[in-house]
């Protein structure tokens, strides 16, 4: 990333933010390294590092050796200067997975605390629950609550920032108007909200298969629902009301009843297709995992259905890459990916490479943490510029 820097007194704040930005990216830099990266003079670099060190944002982590003269000090961002928390709320459905996953990360991105739990949101208050989750993480990591600068909340729905309301969400209590401001007030920190599939795309862009893609679409095959994230040159397309990518609602032609993509290859459709093929399993991901081992016929039929949605995505967006992600896609592994690519080739003239997610960990939680840390870093740099 290219960062502007200047040597005059009027550009002091810009110089400091540029230096901090570089220390947050690769870290472990000497004054000479920073001079090369910013094109600032050595006296200016020294003053910048002095101010950042006094502010507690930068620390000396060692000394270089092997060159003539005094050993140079090595600087890095102070990991304990600020923290971010990610909380992933899930619509459990038929999956039986934990309904909340949470993690606390320091300024460098290292995860200091993490846990999962089941919560019955039919009886539990979302505000109280999230406050308890953040407090538990802070206690587990031995982090003062005041150092948590941002909480990023992932939801299986659409967040409308204009009305600060979560829409199209089936988790009880989370569609209530005014919920997000109440959560922020209870936590005493900034709170951001985003769709879970969008955050999976954040992780895929930063850590996974889409790191080098100019733009990409992430097609999410969940245990029950479907989702789509659209990344255009590193920027997520969320839409006016946060509902861009709610592909499960895309209608299909049917003369007899209303159908959409969810009815074609969502969780319920997978279970119905499994019964037609004599496959018995507890949930959609388990069905696809079993079929990947035993039933090429099921995998081919399922891939044909997935390609209906895939073709719509490619026809509208023409992305450079499509990433298949989500527990059901991962359960299908290479057999499902191969079948989808073969089926998509039959959809010519549409063309687009399709690959599988490169993330084995919880992509949604990692993406929420990445987004939360990005917000913390931007806030720190903004504060430096305004000081």
Automatic annotation (TrEMBL):
InterPro entries attached to this UniProt entry: ATPase_NBD, ROK, WH-like_DNA-bd_sf, WH_DNA-bd_sf
Stretch forming the signal peptide: none
Pfam families associated with the record: ROK
Domain of life (superkingdom): Bacteria
Family assignment from sequence similarity: Belongs to the ROK (NagC/XylR) family.
Name by which UniProt lists this protein: ROK family transcriptional regulator
């Amino acid at each position: 990333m290219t960062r502007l820097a200047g040597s005059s007194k009027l550009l002091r704040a810009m110089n400091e933010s540029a230096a901090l930005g570089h220390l947050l990216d690769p870290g472990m830099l000497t004054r000479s390294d920073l001079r090369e990266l910013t094109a600032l003079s050595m006296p200016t670099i020294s003053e910048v590092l002095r101010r950042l060190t006094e502010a507690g944002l930068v620390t000396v982590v060692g000394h270089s050796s092997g060159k003539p003269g005094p050993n140079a000090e090595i600087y890095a961002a102070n990991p304990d200067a600020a923290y971010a928390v990610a909380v992933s709320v899930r619509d459990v459905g038929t999956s039986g997975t934990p309904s909340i996953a949470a993690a606390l990360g320091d300024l460098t991105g290292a995860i200091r605390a993490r846990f999962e739990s089941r919560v019955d949101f039919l009886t539990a208050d979302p505000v109280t629950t999230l406050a308890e989750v953040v407090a538990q993480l802070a206690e587990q990591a031995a982090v003062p609550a005041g150092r948590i600068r941002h909480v990023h909340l992932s939801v299986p729905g659409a967040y409308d920032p204009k009305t600060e309301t979560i829409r199209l969400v089936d988790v009880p209590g989370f569609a209530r108007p005014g919920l997000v401001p109440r959560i922020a007030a209870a936590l005493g920190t900034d709170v951001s909200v985003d769709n879970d599939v969008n955050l999976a795309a954040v992780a895929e862009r930063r850590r996974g298969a889409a790191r080098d893609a100019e733009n990409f679409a992430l097609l999410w095959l969940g245990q029950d629902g479907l989702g789509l994230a659209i990344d255009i040159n590193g920027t997520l397309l969320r839409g006016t009301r946060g509902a861009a990518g709610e592909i499960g609602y895309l209608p299909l032609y049917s003369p007899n009843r209303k159908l959409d993509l969810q009815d074609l290859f969502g969780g319920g459709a997978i279970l119905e297709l499994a019964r037609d093929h004599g496959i018995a399993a507890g949930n959609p991901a388990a069905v696809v995992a079993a079929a990947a081992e035993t039933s090429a016929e099921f995998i081919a039929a399922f891939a044909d259905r997935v390609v209906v949605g895939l073709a719509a995505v490619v026809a509208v967006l023409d992305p450079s890459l499509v990433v298949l992600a989500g527990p059901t896609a991962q359960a299908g592994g290479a057999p499902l990916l191969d079948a989808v690519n073969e089926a998509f080739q039959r959809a010519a003239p549409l063309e687009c490479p399709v690959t599988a997610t490169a993330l084995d960990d919880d992509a949604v939680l990692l993406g929420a943490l990445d987004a939360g840390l990005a917000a913390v870093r931007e806030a720190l740099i903004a504060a430096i510029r305004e000081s």
